Amino acid sequence: MVHVAAINSEDVFESQAAVAEEPVQANPFASVARAMRGRWFKTIALGAILAPAFAGLGYFSGSQLYNSQAILRVFPQESNILYSTGEDSVLKIFSSFVKAEATYVASHPVMERSVQELSVMRPDLADGLTGTDMARSVNIKRSDSLIVLTTLSRDRAFASQKLEAVIASYLALKSEAEEVRTSVRLSELRSREEDLIERLAGLRMNQLETGGEFGLNALAKAHIEKIAQVDALAARKSEVAATLAALETEDVASSADTSDQEIMRATLLDRAMADLSFERAKLKSELAGLRAGYRDQTNLRFQRKVDSKTDEIAVIEQAISNRRDQIRVLGQTGALTAASNTGEDTTLAEIRFLLEKVSGQLGKARGEARDLNRRRIDLDGIETEISAAERLLEETRRALEVIRLEFGRALPGYAVVMSPPSRPIKPAEDTRKLMMATGFACGLAIALATMLVLGLRERRVRYAESLLSVKGQLPIRQVSDAPADDSHAADLLRNELQLQSLRKPRLVGTARVIAVTSLHSGGGLDCARALAESFSRARMKVLFIDADISTSNQEIEPAGWSDLLLGAGIKPRSTNGIPGLSTVGKGSDDQVGDSDVSARMVQSALKRAAKSFDVVIVSTGGMLDCLSAQFILSNADVGVCYLTPSDNYAAVLSLVEQLDSLPANGTVAVMRNARPSDPWLAVRT
């Protein structure tokens, strides 16, 4: 059904245009609403296609994520380290150790080892997995002495397998590090043990070479005996030297023989003193052995034995001293030096020989005593070194046993698996529904955005209100959904043109020239013909001229517009059934072309054709195709621009200035075949 209406007042038009303009100027979303006008059905249809498609893609791209959790517990080496230790430093050390263990679990070596294990366990899922990806997928948190590991995976079993691989890698690397550290310590201690054993063997060899058949106690006893022998020989030497000195001072060449009785007496005294000296040496040796056997002991029994031996030695030394004095007195009284008629002669040479012999024995005894003393000192030092080496060897072996028995005690704590990786049954997260809803929303949004972009980038006029910006130069007098040749719409347009305000006065008795133009040739021809028929129905003599000579005419027509342009006289053809309407066709193509027309030719042709007519309706052709259309508009009283929603918006704007300035009273716009959603369809039809 065609809706047609007419607006007979310019004031009403202006007020209605103002009403239509206000929301456009005030509402910032007016351009968006205008771009989407008439596109909602297409938008819904496109959304109905895209939304399910994207929803399906979202559903299949979503996944079910399964959560697995494992807990490592770090135990302290000391049972009370976390409770009543009383030392903050110990607790801080343990806390730092727990932090270090949590960091080590998340370290790159652990993750790389876990990836290697997963590549063996699940080669289908671990292909292309790196240590960095593994570290990102496993969340590690520390809570006091607990290390909590959590992970998400699309595969139910793979979630727990990842944590198992991480824990196994962590424990394996930690065990390997402990073994390396322990092996280094064990190798060092074993090397030290071997060195100490070799050192002890060398010291014992030196002990055997130094001591020979004597031990330390035996050497001490032998040294004491040798000292006693040295004392006896020294006393003997002194006596012989004194005797020799006494004989030499008397300067007597007689023999030194003494009586047998006195010689026997001296001999007995000498033998008694020798026996006493031997007894004294024996007692001193026993005393030294006793002291060596009871060293660092202060019991009463030992003290009594020592005192007894000391008293015996003192008595013997007193007896020796008495015998020595008796022999000295005997020698001083001349018993050894006086001549005797009954004894054997003793010469000075023999006494000297005796002195040399005693001196040799004394030197030899002193050398042996010195050797014994040196050996005793060396042996004492060797035994001290042996004791120290044995003590070090014992400590080394004890450390080796500690390392073997107490593996891993070097650190303040150790980690164990408190809770193995859990086996998920239900998914912790299901992103399929969310992705489906997101895809559905994205489909609708893409459909809306696509249609909105198409609307914003639309180059067609589409709606009459889009020409509001040029309403002062090109006022829209009619918006109708009727076709170009609709008679009722033509009648309404006729009334609008009759009420058109005049810029310049028109001479009375001259025909009114109305030029109907469009963007392209052939667009306004039907509208111009219907307008001419409308004027003829109003009992006016009307001449309709088809002046569009830009297109070739396939039919053979009688003389027409092209002939008028050349100055030839023609007779308009009457229209059957429409009284008062005469028409002039294009004419023949070989007379004149569109590019050959001038303004003077158009002015002269219109003036000659308008005689004896009330109204002249001229179809100028397209403004963009026909060069002579501008000349026709410049000689017209009023112009009518025929528009459709499919016309190019930019082209219309480019022609507004010419449409306003060329006709004497300006140009009005007419939109036919308007869209049903055009808001001006109700107020300008």
TrEMBL record:
Membrane-traversing stretches: 40-60, 434-456
Keywords: Coiled coil, Membrane, Transmembrane, Transmembrane helix
Signal peptide: none
Coiled coil start-end: 355-406
Protein name (record): Uncharacterized protein
